[in-house]
Amino acid sequence: MPRQAAETGLFIPEVDASSPDYSAFSTHDFLDTLQPFNKCGYAMKKLMERIRDLAILHSCLSSEQSRLNTQRRYEAFLEAKFRSRLAHLIERCRLTNDPDRKVDLKLKIAELTRRITEAKRIWERYAPWDS
Fold first, then answer.
1. Distance in angstroms (rounded) separating the CA atoms of residues 35 and 111
2. Burial letters for 89-105: b for 16+ Cβ neighbours within 10 Å, e otherwise?
3. What pLDDT was estimated at residue 131?
4. Rounded Cα gap, residues 78 and 21, in angstroms
5. How confident is the model at residue 33 (pLDDT cuts 50, 70, 90)?
């Protein structure tokens, strides 16, 4: 008799906790707690980590020119990732006449503004005020 193809999907064997095939990661309790991967949340986390890294670098540098260059890198990073998109959304919101679209754009503007504020808070926390 020909061998049947394995069923696709996740197979969780019924094994005893003392069995070598047992793993905490193959239990229903663990699998039920998994959530879908949030790409946007992960990307924002990485952007904020980059800002924190720049702020820490800024605080470690002794040369005024190096600190100024790092400050410029931080400003350019904010411009590239947040401010230019924010300006674009504000312009689109100003030009649109559709009230539903305007509400959607205002929500996006608020979210970007919140991200910029969060980035500034991170910078102020890790980069020193004095020169």
1. 23
2. bbeebeeeeeeeeeeeb
3. 47
4. 49
5. confident
